[in-house]
């Protein structure tokens, strides 16, 4: 037969499969299609540039799986966990594990929701692929920490921790927000804002750090996951362009979503900034530089210049995120140190090389505003602990402890009156998101009320039981049993032996 | 009822911390609870200020929380 | 692990506090959060939680108890499907090289294009509605199986399309177009198309699974991927028969896992839809609504008065009757092309070999009215 | 909008790709003006002003074996720009701000 080219063939396989129903109302099949005010005229002309078919998908993905699980198998068999340069890295990996992995799972359910409810075949098969990919990511990450959990603390009840711990309400509320949105908003939220604007910064620097500290397994997790993200980014870009070009009435709606989800994504990445700047003892890049490279250069200076012709301006408060880049990781690490006695991943005493690196990378801010705080822990790791349970931001759920980047000695906390209550927000970015949909954000579940009301029992032990871990699994790394375990594993393997050469 | 008390002078840069409270309790009682919780030095004079979207409002220590118009979930600054 | 030095002993043999027996369970159990969802849906069922037992009428004591008999997780899924994809591609390549399509009996050629090509729409519609199941089903064990099943259906829709493109030679695109017309306008397909449209507006995710995997597919897939295989070969077309064999491997798995799910549901005597919380260790959890920020107390929703078996029986009766009505008119298509194959015995066999035994294991009676 | 700063497009390639990654980088350098490389430990970021083309034939010539553009999926960890074309023969990534 005459060989069809890739584009024609892809269209033949993925298009015209749906039809206008004759015996039911199409609005019953797609009840949400008009809910958000988006107008679609001729979506047929759009296309997912990756043109991945079922056969290509399973072939490429099984090769990726094969490569990744071979690395995993070797790492596990050789006790790679004992061979990394410093075990505090695992505390960062734990943070990643219990924060990012449930997010992947939520994204899996979310992509199914989007694919089911947006009847645009041009992007639909890409959403179906992504729904399966996200399950892949969740499972690769689980396999990674299933092994860790056999040797280290903190992960053995991850689902309980995910459901009940204050820290996990941060990523959970982010994806819950998208899951409860309309399908087009969810598409912009995840495929565009999350995947295109921010996942680079999640997987590229972190995988590089993993390789630098010798965690081959985690480097492979990062790289293998990221290798699917190009497809997800392509979906996000195609969807964004389609919505903007289909109808002018979509533009202000899309702008509103970009405003909201840029800041929402930026804030959910707060802990990632500490995984870039603090947890690895050998860093690949600083948060500040990664932000400049991936967000400022590639997105604000690249993409948003292109979107100008549609009347789209850079997302609201993007200047704030640029200002905050000198503060973000330090202020976030400070928050983690306040509550490290009640978290499944530990803080740690900064070491001399950490002070050197942080001062060098952040000459304008670190020594002046943050180093004194971290030095307080030199004698006593609990010196900076919070006396109680913090008020958290009603949108992003992070404790309201960010400094105003213009005046770093002052708090950035915002107070808003709604429905007979004063609501607290961590920043002007989150405040504006709250004000746009207060009826949504007043529904957030915040464990402080439950903890303080004694719902989970009257003692601290009861509360930890509810979190899914014990007080011994929290606190500071270098004084923890995990650190001593790691030393023992290394001794057993003879890793710290010095061999004289004469 | 729960109120959120912050000590802006604390150099740990902490946010408001939850304090279980009761509408009928005197503000002085809340102040004592909060100073104890935050580990502030005894024998000094402190005051409470309620924070609003529109500004600040002093809390009268001899009145109850209800008389002060304090509501569940209100943020308060403890100044000293 | 006895080989391991004492100082390298793991601190726990099981990675999680909940018991797992294998890799599949390790990456599947307790994946979905069950409580403390943050917001209610903005548009669809705005009173419901993100993961809410009220998305179906049936009640299950422990949603995590379901197991896929094939224990598929992502790795094993893509590895087995890669093998199938390789087989399908090799099959088409050999067929081209051996010029098999040129030797196929002309009557079969016309019939097979008219019968198999429109089924891409049927497979696709099933894949789309399974996305609804993936979003709203309770727990990862169930929705994970639905996820791969949906992907399989998508794959079969593409295999059938590829087959038609290859088989029709230079007129491949027209063949797809013609098949779409048949699907929309030919009266042999009228009832089947209508059936799939009604599946697409079925809201209860368990009912969707009943409609797809207990009614239409056991019948139609047996006809398309089993019964016609020998007839295909008789007409000089081994390609379609081999493709159908690969498809039927997927179909058997989808029937097996849904059958065990139906059994789990039908034999569960639970009367409260909130009982699953006990199995998760949240026995006394009063619900997040009590903080007064959410719209309503989900537990004030009245419970079903019917048992799971009664509900399943209603669904099965309704959808099996309709499925028979949907497949029966395909006889006229066979007759029109002079293919001697009777649809009715295929339906009887599907009932006897799969549908009735499954219903029996569930303890369900059905009233079939055709 | 005035282009005060250069708009770059580009790809992040996984260095595990070995010879394939090297060949793709070389092909990009040969076919596109102003290419810059940023070495990133396990990745190499390859960027070019405004537009970038990757041609299958050239990669194949450099690599000295048959090479399918689909293999790029294995090494392309990320990209920036709009994918304008991706068929059997070439991948084109570009910004389009200067068109309007």
SSE diagram, text form:
The complex is a heterotetramer of chains A (502), B (80), C (370) and D (100).
Chain A lengths: L5 H9 L11 H4 L24 H24 L11 H29 L3 H31 L6 H7 L4 H11 L3 H31 L2 H31 L3 H19 L1 H8 L9 H21 L10 H7 L3 H11 L13 H10 L4 H10 L27 E2 L2 E5 L2 E5 L2 E5 L2 H9 L1 H4 L5 H6 L7 H8 L13 H13 L9
Antiparallel strand pairs in A: 1-2, 3-4
Helix pairs in contact in A: 3-9, 4-5, 4-7, 4-8, 4-11, 5-9, 8-9, 8-10, 8-12, 10-17, 11-14
Chain B lengths: L1 E5 L10 E4 L6 H12 L8 E5 L4 E3 L16 E5 L1
Parallel strand pairs in B: 1-5
Antiparallel strand pairs in B: 1-2, 3-4, 3-5
Chain C lengths: L22 H6 L45 H24 L2 H4 L2 H11 L2 H18 L3 H28 L4 H14 L1 H14 L4 H30 L3 H29 L9 H4 L28 H20 L2 H7 L6 H20 L8
Helix pairs in contact in C: 2-6, 2-10, 5-6, 5-8, 5-9, 6-7, 6-10, 7-8, 8-12, 9-10, 9-12, 9-14, 10-14
Task: For the structure shown, list the relevant keywords.
heterotetramer, B: 80 residues, alpha+beta, 5-stranded mixed beta sheet, 5 strands, globular, D: 100 residues, Phenol Hydroxylase P2 Protein, 4-stranded antiparallel beta sheet, 3-stranded antiparallel beta sheet
Describe this structure in words.
The complex is a heterotetramer of chains A (502), B (80), C (370) and D (100). Chain A is built from 21 helices and four strands. Chain A is mainly alpha-helical. Chain A has a domain of 315 residues: Ribonucleotide Reductase, subunit A (Orthogonal Bundle), CATH 1.10.620. In chain A, the strands form two sheets. In chain A, strands 1-2 form a two-stranded antiparallel ribbon. In chain A, strands 3-4 form a two-stranded antiparallel ribbon. In chain A, a hairpin with a 2-residue loop joins strand 3 and strand 4. By secondary structure, chain B is of the alpha+beta class. Chain B has one domain: Ubiquitin-like (UB roll) (Roll). The longest helix of chain B is centred in the middle third of the chain and has 12 residues. By secondary structure, chain C is mainly alpha-helical. The longest helix of chain C is centred in the middle third of the chain and has 30 residues. The model of chain C has no long low-confidence stretch (mean pLDDT 94). Chains in contact: A-B, A-C, A-D. At the A-C interface, helix 1, helix 3, helix 4, helix 5 and helix 6 of A face helix 1, helix 2, helix 5, helix 6 and helix 7 of C.
């Amino acid at each position: 037969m005459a060989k069809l080219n890739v584009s024609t063939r892809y269209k033949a396989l993925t298009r015209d499969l749906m039809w206008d129903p004759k015996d039911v109302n199409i609005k019953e099949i797609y009840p949400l299609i008009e809910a958000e005010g988006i107008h679609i005229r001729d979506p047929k002309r759009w296309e997912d540039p990756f043109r991945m078919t079922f056969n290509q998908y399973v072939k490429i993905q099984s090769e990726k799986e094969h490569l990744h699980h071979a690395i995993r198998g070797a790492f596990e068999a050789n006790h790679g966990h004992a061979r990394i340069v410093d075990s505090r890295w695992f505390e960062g990996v734990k943070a990643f594990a219990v924060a990012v992995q449930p997010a992947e799972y939520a994204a899996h359910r979310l992509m199914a929701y989007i694919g089911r409810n947006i009847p645009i075949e041009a992007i639909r098969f890409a959403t179906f692929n992504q729904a399966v990919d996200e399950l892949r990511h969740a499972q690769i990450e689980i396999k990674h920490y299933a092994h860790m959990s056999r040797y280290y603390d903190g992960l053995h009840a991850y689902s309980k921790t995910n459901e009940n711990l204050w820290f996990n309400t941060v990523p959970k509320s982010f994806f819950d927000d998208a899951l409860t949105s309309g399908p087009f908003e969810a598409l912009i939220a995840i495929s565009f804002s999350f995947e295109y604007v921010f996942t680079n910064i999640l997987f590229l620097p972190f995988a590089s750090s993993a390789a630098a500290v010798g965690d081959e397994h985690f480097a492979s997790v990062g790289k293998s996951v990221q290798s699917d993200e190009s497809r997800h980014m392509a979906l996000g870009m195609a969807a964004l362009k389609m919505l903007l070009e289909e109808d002018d009435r979509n533009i202000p709606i899309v702008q509103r979503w970009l405003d909201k989800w840029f800041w929402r994504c930026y804030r959910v990445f707060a802990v990632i900034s500490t995984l870039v700047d603090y947890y690895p003892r050998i860093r690949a890049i600083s948060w500040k530089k990664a932000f400049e490279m991936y967000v400022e250069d590639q997105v604000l200076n690249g993409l948003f210049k292109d979107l100008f012709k549609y009347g789209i301006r850079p997302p609201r408060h993007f200047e704030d995120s640029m200002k905050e880049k000198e503060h973000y990781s330090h202020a976030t690490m400070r928050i983690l140190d306040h509550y490290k006695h009640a978290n499944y991943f530990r803080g740690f005493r900064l070491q001399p090389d950490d002070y050197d690196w942080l001062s060098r990378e952040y000459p304008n801010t670190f020594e002046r505003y943050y180093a004194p705080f971290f030095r307080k822990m030199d004698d006593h790791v609990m010196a900076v602990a919070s006396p109680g349970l913090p008020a958290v931001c009603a949108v992003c759920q992070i404790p309201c402890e960010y400094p105003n980047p213009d005046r770093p000695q002052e708090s950035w906390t915002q107070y808003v009156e709604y429905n007979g209550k004063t609501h607290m927000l961590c920043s002007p970015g989150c405040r504006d998101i709250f004000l746009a949909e207060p009826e949504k954000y007043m529904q957030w579940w915040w464990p402080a009320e439950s903890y303080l009301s004694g719902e989970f029992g009257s003692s601290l032990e009861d509360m930890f039981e509810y979190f899914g871990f014990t007080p011994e699994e929290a606190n500071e790394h270098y004084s923890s049993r995990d650190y001593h375990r790691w030393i023992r594993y290394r001794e057993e393997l003879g890793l710290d032996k010095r061999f004289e050469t004469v | 009822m729960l109120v959120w008390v912050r000590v802006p002078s604390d150099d740990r840069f902490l946010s408001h911390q939850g304090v279980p409270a009761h509408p009928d309790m005197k503000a002085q009682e809340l102040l004592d609870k909060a100073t104890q919780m935050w580990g502030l030095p005894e024998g000094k004079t402190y005051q409470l200020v309620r924070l609003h979207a529109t500004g600040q409002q002093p809390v009268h220590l001899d009145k109850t929380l209800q008389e002060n118009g304090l509501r569940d979930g209100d943020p308060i600054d403890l100044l000293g | 692990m006895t080989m391991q030095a004492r100082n390298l002993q793991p601190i726990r043999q099981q990675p999680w506090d909940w018991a797992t027996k294998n890799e599949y369970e390790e990456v599947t159990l307790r994946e979905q959060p069950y409580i403390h969802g943050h917001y209610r849906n903005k548009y669809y069922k705005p009173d419901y939680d993100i993961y809410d037992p009220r998305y179906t009428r049936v009640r299950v004591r422990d949603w995590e108890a379901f197991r896929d008999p094939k224990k598929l997780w992502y790795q094993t899924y893509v590895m087995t499907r890669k093998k199938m994809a390789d087989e399908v591609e090799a099959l088409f390549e050999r067929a081209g090289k051996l010029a098999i399509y040129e030797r196929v009996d002309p009557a079969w050629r016309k019939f097979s294009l008219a019968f198999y090509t429109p089924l891409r729409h049927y497979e696709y519609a099933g894949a789309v509605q399974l996305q609804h199941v993936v979003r709203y089903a309770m727990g990862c064990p169930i929705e994970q199986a639905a996820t791969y099943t949906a992907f399989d259906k998508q794959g079969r829709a593409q295999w059938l399309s590829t087959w038609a493109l290859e088989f029709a030679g230079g007129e491949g695109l027209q063949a797809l177009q013609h098949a779409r017309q048949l699907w929309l306008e030919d009266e042999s397909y009228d009832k089947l198309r209508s059936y799939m449209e009604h599946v697409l507006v079925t809201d209860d995710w368990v009912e969707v699974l009943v409609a797809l995997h207990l009614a239409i597919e056991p019948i139609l897939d047996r006809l398309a991927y089993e019964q016609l295989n020998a007839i295909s070969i008789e007409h000089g077309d081994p390609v379609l028969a081999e493709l159908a064999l690969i498809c039927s491997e997927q179909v058997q798995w989808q029937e097996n896992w849904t059958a065990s799910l139906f059994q789990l549901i039908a034999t569960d005597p639970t009367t409260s839809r909130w009982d699953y919380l006990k199995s998760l260790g949240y026995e006394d959890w009063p619900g997040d609504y009590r903080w007064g920020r959410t719209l309503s107390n989900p537990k004030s929703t009245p419970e079903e008065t019917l048992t799971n078996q009664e509900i399943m029986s209603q669904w099965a009766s309704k959808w099996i009757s309709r499925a028979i009505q949907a497949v029966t008119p395909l006889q006229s298509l066979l007759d029109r092309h002079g293919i001697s194959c009777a649809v009715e015995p295929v339906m009887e066999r599907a009932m006897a070999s799969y549908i009735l035994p499954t219903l029996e294991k569930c303890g369900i009676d059905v009233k079939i009215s055709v | 909008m005035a282009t005060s700063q250069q708009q770059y497009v580009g790809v992040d390639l996984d260095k595990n790709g070995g010879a394939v990654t090297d060949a793709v980088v070389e092909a990009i350098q040969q076919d596109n003006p102003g290419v810059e490389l940023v070495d990133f430990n396990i990745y190499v970021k390859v960027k070019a002003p405004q537009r970038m083309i990757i041609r299958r034939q050239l990669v194949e010539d450099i690599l000295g074996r048959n090479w399918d553009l689909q293999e790029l999926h294995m090494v392309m960890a990320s990209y920036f720009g709009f994918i304008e074309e991706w068929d059997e023969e070439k991948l084109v990534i570009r910004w389009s701000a200067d068109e309007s």
